[in-house]
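User: Please run a holo structure prediction.
Assistant: Happy to. Please share the sequence and the ligand.
User: Here you go; the ligand is ME8.
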Amino acid sequence: MSKEIFYVTTPIYYVNDVPHLGHAYTTVATDFVARYRRSQGREVFFLTGTDEHGQKILRTAEAAGLSPKEWTDQIVPRWTEVWAALDISNDDFIRTTEARHEGPVQKFMQDLYDRGEIYLGRYEGLYCVGCEQFKQPDELVDGRCPLHGTVPDAVEEENYFFRLSNYADRLIELWETVPSSVLPETRRNEVLGKVRGGLDDLSISRVSFDWGVPIPWDDKHVIYVWIDALQNYITAVGYGSDEARFERIWPADIHFVGKDILWFHTVIWPAMLMALELPLPKTVFAHGYLQVGGEKMSKSTLTGISPHDLIDAFGSDGYRYYFMRDISFGGDGDFSWEAMVARYNSDLANDFGNLASRVLNMISRYLDGSVPRVPEEAEMTLPEQSMIDVQQGTFAAIEKAMDDIAPHDALKAAWAFVRRANSYVEEVAPWKLAKDDAERRRLEVVLYQLADALRLMSLMLFPIMPKAAEKLWSRLGLEGRVEDRILPEEGRWGLLPEGNKVTIGDPLFPRIETEA
Ligand code: ME8
């Protein structure tokens, strides 16, 4: 079953507060993947948005003296603003308070009810508002939620239940027959182990407050926030409103989530879809958790740091690159200011930024700023051949890493080409060739190869560093935008047109001096 559109999502985040580094981590990773797929010529639909119902939002709004809708309306722009500052290229932004979401959610619930998948029962248990989740006593530490440090509320009420217990076998069968449905493998084993112990039915409505989507056949109840939230992935693409569109886009190719919400995405969500015989997401990828390490920020918590602070210091490209390169996607990771400065200076200021300015400077100085004639095969010597080999190996390695959802490996691989271009400059020493008239054509060949290498880097790095890639593209005198280029067609050598005028410009990544 292959579908034309590549559909990728982030979680929809709770807007009880502004975004922090953790939210930005998932969103940047998803953006990297979305941009990469577009650069491969795929049509992409990239969805993100906000989760606006439930008690957490309600209590936050009350504390601020606002209605929940007033609260969410005033805070959502704080989110979209951060995504814009990080060059997030989402195709849509769904808010769960929108009519296009709420109507179809009611239809979904009614269908489940009509099929006998929902029944009325009583729930008695402990509810953590921070998690928006009922907790089992053995999940608490000294009676408190280990994530929020708060004592959960004792709740006893009449709730509707979804017959989740019926789906344990089908879920296990899915994970065993389609291992890529939950990644990384360790996460799949985690849910597999839990579900093998059996599943309880799930409480899916609440009666003690009314900030949510009403249960359509019984409006004393609102739909449990998680059940409403998960459906954003289908309501945004036409479920219950535009069936043709829904069939064209759904199922999602990848739902990116953090490990904290693995259960909802790999157990509850597929079970609900199974109950309605709807196609299942192809992959749920749960990445690890970030923490703050290092000296400079040791007193801050990750959730207390605004992405803006780091964007101001490193630029959006530096931000995106660092988090995707330094932390192995899937595992937990440490963010530290020191590591970020070190990575930025070595990879971006030195390896990539310096290379670009050296090459553009030499073309200006030695060749009057014009791209020379495209070298013929016979003019290529061993160093050129080796650089071409490294480039081809690099592009293949990036493709493999991105197929494996290993963005850190893709960037590691990319640097093999950047480093080879740097060593090529040292090897062929254009400044020596420039002193000898007899070497004029050799100088042209060498500088052509280097300029073309920059063009290839701009295509290669666009998905992770769109700003620098566009700048470099236009400095090479190239027309249009990298964004509109398709890598497999343009990833060959020799496509930089002769006679293009290059410009030098400011350093792409000015070095960051660390305080003494
Ligand atoms: O859970 N490290 O929203 P949320 C890495 N509304 N990623 C982190 C992180 C950290 N320290 N902290 C948060 C919700 N995240 C629900 C989702 S989806 C239908 C509903 C990221 O605002 C990570 O992606 O609590 C995590 O899963 C998500 O933010 C939780 O965001």
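The pocket of ME8 is lined by residues 11-14, 22-23, 25-26, 51, 229-230, 232, 257-258, 260-261, 289-290, 302 (CB under 6 Å).
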